[in-house]
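Hi team, as promised in this morning's meeting, here are the two structures we talked about. I've kept the exact order from the run log so nobody has to guess. The first one is mostly here for context; it's the second one we should focus on when we meet again. Sequence first, then the predicted C-alpha cells.
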Amino acid sequence: MRFKAIETAYNRPVINVPGPGEKVADYYGSYTFNDDVMKTLLTPEAYLKVSNAIKSGSRIDREIADEVAAAMKAWATSKGATHYTHWFQPLTGGTAEKHDAFFDVTPSGKAIEKFKGSALVQQEPDASSFPSGGLRATFEARGYTGWDPSSPAFLMDNGAGGKTLCIPSVFISYTGEALDYKTPILRALHVLDKAATAVMYYFDRNVEKVTATLGPEQEYFLVDKALYYARPDLVMAGRTVFGHSPAKGQQLEDHYFGSIPPRVNAFMVDFEYEAWKLGIPVRTRHNEVAPGQFECAPTFEELNLAIDHNALLMDLMNKVAERHNYKVLFHEKPFAGINGSGKHNNWSMMTDTGVNLLAPSTKPKETLRFLTFLMNVVKAVHDHADLLRASIASAGNEYRLGANEAPPAIVSIFLGDELIRLLETLENRGEVQLEKGDNVFYKLGITRTPPLMRDNTDRNRTSPFAFTGNKFEYRAVGGSANSASPMIILNTIVANQLQEFKKDLEGRLEFGEKKELAIVDILKEYYRQSKSILFQGNGYSDNWVQEAAKRGLTNIASTPLALGKYIEPASIQVLEKMGVLSAREVHARYEIELENYIKKVQIESRVIGDLALNHVVSTAVKYQHQLAQTAKSLVELELIEEAQPLKELIKEISRRVFIIKQAVEAMTEARKKANNLEDIPKRAELYGSEVKDYFEKIRYEVDKLELLIDDEDWPLVKYREMLFVK
C-alpha cells in the first residue's frame, strides 16, 4: 500500500486551473448577498432597517424579514441555488449546516417555491448531538439557529450537486444558552464597542462606534491524498504518531518563502478564486518554514465577519484540495521535528471616524489616546493572562506551544524598544513623547534602490502576544482553532478594563484634576502594575522560562490545567459582569473542552496501539525471522564472525519490540483506569499525564525500528515521502 501510494503521488499531474478571464474586482463577492445586492433588491425602507441592524444592532421586524427572504431567494435561485441552510459554528470546532429545499408541497401535491422570513430568521436543528456541556440532557433535542444579519449570506457551490444559500447564524439551546462561538463573540463585540466608545468621549466626541478588527493568518500543510490515506494516524488523529525525521528537514530553511511548487500553486490559485467569489479577502500566499507547509493571510475585516470567513476558508480549502488530490492538515503539530501550524490573530480597534486606536502618532493628543488604549490592553492581558491562556488550550496546541517554532505557554507581551522607552519616560517623568527620530530611512549605500522606511517597532516572532506597529498579533492560537475562542476572551477583558479606566478617570475628574494629567497618572500606575508581563527578548529561550517564574508569570503547559482557568472565580466574574457568558455557560464550555481533549488523546492512544502492534511489531517480527534465517545459514557455513552483526541486530529488534509491547499494554491499562473515573477533570488529567506519557516512549522505539528494518518492508509512508511531494 505504501509503495502504491508513493507511485500515485509522485506521478500526479498539475491540474490546469484556467484563469477567470476578468479582474478580481469584477467577481469579488459575487457569491455573497452583500450591501450592493441588498441595495438593488430591497426597498429603501427594508434596506435602511437591515443596515441599521448591522451597524447598531436594532431589531428587524418580521415584515422586513419576509422581504429580505424573498430577495435572498430570488438572488440565490438566479445563481443556481436549490437549497438554503442556517450556517453555524457549534462547539465541535467545525461548522454545521442542515439543507432545506426552496419549495413546499401543497395539499394537491403541487410543488411551489417557498422561503419566508420565518425560515430566514429561525431554524430548528437537532441539538441533542451537539456538545452542550450538560446544559441539555441528551433526550432534549430542541435547539434554535438565528440569522446574524451582520455577516452576509453566501452561496456554497456543492459541485455537481448545485449551490446552497448559507445564512450565518447563532445557535442557542431551547432554554436560551449559547451553544456556539458566534453568540458570545457578538456579545463581546457589543460590550467592547460600548466601553471603547465611552473612553473615546474624552478624546473625540464625534466617535459613535468602535469596531474590533481581525486578520487571522492561516498556516497549513498539504499532503498528497494517496499518502494521506496510507497513514491511518493522519486519517484518524490528524497527525503522525510515528515517523523518523528525514536527513533533510527544515534546517536549511530553503523552503521558507521559496518558489511555490506548480501543483501547490494550482491549488492556491483555485482556492483563492473560490474565496474571492465568497468575499473572503485572501491576499497573501507563501511557503512556510517546514517542508510541505504553507500560509495564506487576509486583509483585516470586522472581527465577527473575519471569524466567519476563517471558518469558511478552512472548509473551502478542504473542498478545493480534493480537486487537486491533496489533503489539508490544520493540526497544530502533524509532524515531529519540524514546525507546527498556528493561526496568528492580528487584532485592533477602529472608530467609525476611520481611526485605528492602536496606531501611534507624533501629535501629543493622539499619542495620549494611543497610549490609553495600548496600556488598557496591556493591563487587561496582565490581569487575565491565565484566562487568555485557557482560550487557546487544546490537545493539538499542547504539542506546539513551547516547541522551537511556537511561543511558550507563558503569556507575555512584546511592545518593542521604542514603546518601552516611551513608557519608562512616562513612568519616571510623566512625559508623553513619541518621535520617529532620524533613523526613519535605512541608508543602504545603494543609490539605485528607493529609500526603505523602518517601522517604529521590530517584530518578535517568539512572543505569544506581540505589538506589531498598529495592532496586536496573538501568535499562540492553534492552526485548527476557531478564532472566536481567544477573541471572545480578548475583547471581553479589554472591554472590562476600559470600563475600569473610565471609572478611574471619572473619579479623578470629580476632584477637579485636569483631564490630561489625570490620564497620564492613571497610565503610569497601570504600567507599574503590568510591566512584569512585558518581555522584549527571545521567548524560546530557557532563560525566559526562569525569568518568567521570578516575575510570577504562570507557565501552564498542561491543557487540562490551562482549561481549569476558565472556571476560576475571577474568570467567571469578568465574563458574567460583561454579559458575555453566564456561569452555567462557562462551566459547560469548560466541560466540553475537557471532553474534547480526552477524546482526542484517547483516539491518538488507540491509533498508537493499533499501528504499533498491527503494523510495526508484526513487520519487525517478520524481518527478524528473515535475519534469523540468514544468520543461521551463515553459522551453518561456519561464518560465525560474519553472523554476529545479524545476531546483534536481532537482539536489538527483540528488545525494542519487547519495550513497545509492554508500553502499549501499560498505556491501555492507564486508559482503562482513566475511563473508570466519573470526575471529568481528573479523567482529563490522567489522560494528559499517565496515558500521554507513553506516547513518546512508544514513538522512540518505533522510530528506531524504522531505521533498522528494510525500507522495502516498512509499512508506513515515511516523512521523506510525505513532506517533499511537490
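And here is the second protein, the one for discussion:
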Amino acid sequence: MRYPVLLSPVLLLPCLGQGAQPIPLETVTVTTPRQNQALLDTPAAVTVVDSQAHGEGRPNLQLDETLNRVPGLFFQNRYNFAQNLRISSRGFGARAPFGVRGLHLRVDGLPYTLPDGQSQVDAIDLDRLRQVEVLRGPASSLYGNAAGGVLLLNSDDGGSQPPGAHLRVAGGSDDYRKLGATLYQRDENNDYALGVSALSFDGQRQQSRVEKYQLNGKWRHALANGGRITTLLDVLDIPTAEDPGGLTRAQAHEDGDQASRFSNLLDAGQVVRQQRLGWVWDQPTKQGAWQGYLHYTHRDFEQQLPFPGSSELGYERQFYGTGLRHAGQAGKLNYVVGAEVNRQEDDRDRYQVSASGERQGRTADEQQNATAAGLFAQATLPLNEYWSWTFGGRLDRLQLSIDDRFLADGNDDGHRRFTERSYSTGLNWRLHPRHQLFANIGSAFESPTFTEFANPDGGGFNPDLEPQKAVNGEIGARGDLSGTVQYELTLFTVRTRDEIVPFEQDGRTFYENAGRTRRDGVELGLSWYPDDWNRISAAWTYGNYRFRRFQESGESLRDHRLPGLPEHQLYLEWQRDYRGGTFTSLETLMISSVYAENGNDTRVGGYALVNGRVGHRWRLAGGNQLTTYLAAHNLLDRDYYANIRINANSDRPLASRGYFEPGPGRTWVAGMEIKL
C-alpha cells in the first residue's frame, strides 16, 4: 500500500510508505492563484502540503505541526487556547494578540476570514485535514483584505478514503487526552465523511486547561449533468479554554509554569460555541467551469481577559455570504472572473470587573456589522512555449458600522466605508521541463478589524486609524534536480504604508498607523531523497522587517525592527522508513531573537527545539491496520517562550511588562489509530 505524499515545491516529501517517490512538480495543480494551474506554470510562491502524509504520529494540537515546514510562515501561541494560534506570513499577522490577521483563510472552499479581516482556526478538524495550499506574496491580493497571503485548507472525504472507520486515541504529558473517530462511506453518486473528536489538556502552565469537542461532516453528491454539490457541517464546543496570561521576565525566570496574578484571580479564559453550514457547487461546462458557495456561521463567545477593568466581554456572531466564479478559455487566454459578498453581524457587550473578580456594571452594548463585496478577475496568456503572463485585479467595497445601545457614556455610533483596488501581474519562464523562473508584483490592502478599530478616546471607531496598503514584489525559482532534489527559492520585498501596530493604554490594547515599513527577505526550501527509505528536508526564511517612518512618543523609530518577528527561521527534518513498517522522524526548529516592543528595548533570545517520533504500522486480519506511535516535543528540555505579547503593558516600566508566555519543557504523547 502506498501512502500520500507532500505535494510541495519546497518540501515535496514522500509519506511514510514503502518505496514512495516524490510526485513530479509538473503534475501538481494549485488553485490558490484563483485559477487551476500546473505548479510550474504559476508565477507565485505557492506551497502545497499533504498534511495526512505528515500527520502520522503527530498529536495534531495545532496547525503549525503541519505548516512549520513552509518557509515564510511563523507561528506563536500554540499552547494558549484562549488566545489561539498566531500565524504570520512575511511578517503580516504578527501584531494579532489573538486569532489570525493579514492572511485569508478558506476551509473546503468556504471563507473563514470575516469581512473585517479577522480569522479563527479553532474549528478546523486537524485530524481530517488532507491538504493545505499556502500562497504568499502579490497574487494573494485577489482574495481581498489580506496583505500576507492565503491559506486554503481541504479536509478528506469519502471519495479519497476507502469505506470504513478510523479510530484514534492518544494521551501524554500534562494530562493530554484526545479521542477521535471518523466514518467514511460512498456509493455511486455520494460520498460521506463524518468525524468527531474530544480534547482535554491541562497544559504545563497554571490556568491553561482546555476542553474541546468537534463534529465535522462532508457530503458530496454527484449531479446528473456532471456537476456536484458538497454540503459541509462543523460544530465546535469549547466549554473551557483558560488564559494563563503574560509574565514579566523576572516571573518567567522564577517559575515559568505560573500564571499571571490576575489570570488566577479572575479565572481568565473563554467559552466558545460555533456551528457552520455551507454548500459548494461545482459545474463543468464545455466553455470551462462554474463554482459557487453559500455559507452560514453562528458563534457564541464569552471571555474574561487576564486583567481587571473593562475586561469581561462577549458576542453573538452571525457570519454568512455567497460567491460565484467562472473559469474558462478565450483563444489562448485562460481566465477566471467572480464576485462574492459576505456579511458579519456581532451583537457585543462588555463589563467592568473588579480586581476581586466581581462584575461592576456594563461598559458597552453595541451591534457591529461589516459587509464586504468584491469583484475579481485574472487571466493567463501563453506568450510562447516557454513564457506566460498572468495578470489580475480586484475591487473591494467594505462597510463597517457600530450601533451603540449603551448611551450612559454618550452616543458612540460610527460608520466607516472603504473602496479598495488591488492588482497583480507576473511572468513565468519554463526554462526547462523541470524548472521555472518567475517574477510577480502586486498591491494589497488590509483593514483594521473591529477590535483594532476601538477608540482609545471613547466608543465608536478610532477616527485616526486607516487600512494599511502594501506593494509586494518577488522573484523566484523552483524545480527538480534528477528526481532526487527538489527546491524552491524566492526573494521578496514589501513596502507598506500606514502599517497597523498595537499599543496599550489603561490595560487595553489599541492600534495606530505606523507611517511606513519595509519587509525584505529570502525563502528557501530543499528536499533530498538519497534512497527510497530516507527523506531529508529543510526550509529557511530570512526576513528583514523594519519601520521606515514612524514616531512613538515623539521618538523616531526609523530602522527599528518590527516586534515579534525573527530574522531567521530554520526547519530541518529527517524521516526514515523500515521494511517491517516502523517509521521514525527527527525534526529541529530554530528561531532567532525577536524584540518585544516597537522601541526594541527588550530583546528576547532565540531558541532551538528538537522533536522526535517513532511508530509502527501493524497489518491486521481482513486488511485492517493498526498504527502505534510515540512523539516527543522539546527533547532537549530547553527553556523558551512560546509567545511574546508584543507592546503589552506599554504604560508600565520595562521590568513590569508581561510580555512572556513560556513554552513547556520536554513533553510526550503516545497514541494509536485503527483503520477498519
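Starting points for discussion:
The helical segments are 51-55, 64-67, 249-254, 261-266.
Residues 35-675 form a domain with the Maltoporin; Chain A fold (CATH 2.40.170.20).
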